[in-house]
Amino acid sequence: MEHILEGKELNKRFASEKGDTTALTDVSFYLDKGEVLGIVGESGSGKSTLLKVVSGMITPDSGDLFHDGKKYTGQKPRKTGEFLQVIFQDAKSSFDPRMPMERSIAEAGRGRADRALILEHIKKVGLDEELLSRKPSQLSGGQCQRMSIARAFYSGAGILLCDEITSALDVSSQAQVVKVMKNLKNDGKMSALFVSHDIALVSMICNRIMVMKDGRCVEQGEIGKIISDPQHEYTRKLIESARKQEIVNEVY
Ligand SMILES: Nc1ncnc2c1ncn2[C@@H]1O[C@H](COP(=O)(O)OP(=O)(O)OP(=O)(O)O)[C@@H](O)[C@H]1O
Ligand SMILES: [Mg+2]
Question: Do the domain assignments include residue 239?
Fold first, then answer.
């Protein structure tokens, strides 16, 4: 079977007056249907750049992207939005502040607004129908983040690209978003790239992870295997610091 998403040897450099920054060097990955691939690595390691390249927000200097085996390198978000949606850290600012949630979500769909379908997605992310009439400023950060997950699904895209979607949330909202992601994954309908600097959190949601450092993928594999037997020194350090927070210990 074809991978639902695949990137092959992606490279991206940013040129500036102070010199070039190599953000991605020969990064390859694949994502299968129903799978969540975690992407971890320290600040500046290229995680967001990778998601931007995959979504078409920026074009790679070289390398190729495939959806269901079909090459889509160079396609812009307007087009890639048919099969993937990016969810950012700051969910609130991704909604029009003047619009009630229901309208924002409806506008993400193709064709006529389907209220029954909107409600279905709202329930899936554990939110109350009553919140649909509110504006973004009248919701908590966690509620907004779950609204943005619902909106992504309502748009018809089967692939989510999540960039630090729990980082701006307090612990209890974080737990709710993690629960939603887990449920969606267990449904088998969602496929996602899940970027986070928090390997402990990633280990709760993902099947496989990819560890990035200085724009390169230094390690990639099944989550349990990487946590129990990391091959790269940098991965070992990430796990060690997560263990200190006694989170990974709870999971494994
Ligand atoms: N538009 C840009 N112009 C120039 N350099 C950029 C640009 N975007 C990113 N970079 C550089 O590319 C590198 C990778 O950045 P990126 O945002 O992908 O890192 P990240 O892993 O997402 O970090 P964080 O965890 O802090 O979000 C960094 O050195 C960054 O400064
Ligand atoms: Mg980033």
Answer: yes
Any idea what the Cα angle at residue 135 is, between residues 133 and 139, rounded to 5°?
Answer: 100
* Best mutation site among 39, 40, 49, 90 for ligand 1 pocket (most ligand atoms within 8 Å of CB): 49
pLDDT in tens, 11-61: 999 998 889 999 999 999 999 999 999 999 989 999 999 999 999 999 999
Cβ atoms of 215 and 46 closer than 8 Å: yes
| Confidence (pTM) | 0.92
Mention every residue, 6+ apart, whose C-beta is less than 8 A from residue 200: 242, 245, 247, 248, 251
> What single-letter DSSP state applies at residue 45?
S
How many angstroms does the Cα of residue 47 sit away from the middle of ligand 2? 6
Which token pair is 243?
């263990």
Pick from 157, 180, 208: which is nearest to 32 by CA? Answer: 208
pLDDT tens by residue, 83-96: 999 999 888 999 99
Quote the number of domains for the chain: 1
The CATH number covering residue 224 comes to: 3.40.50.300
**Structure-token pair, residue 195:** 């970027």
Work out whether strand 191-195 and strand 159-163 pair parallel, antiparallel, or are unpaired: parallel
Ligand 1 pocket, 196 CB below 6 A? no
Average pLDDT, the chain: 91
Q: How far is the CA of 162 from the centre of ligand 1 (A)?
A: 16
Would residue 61 count as lying in a domain? Answer: yes
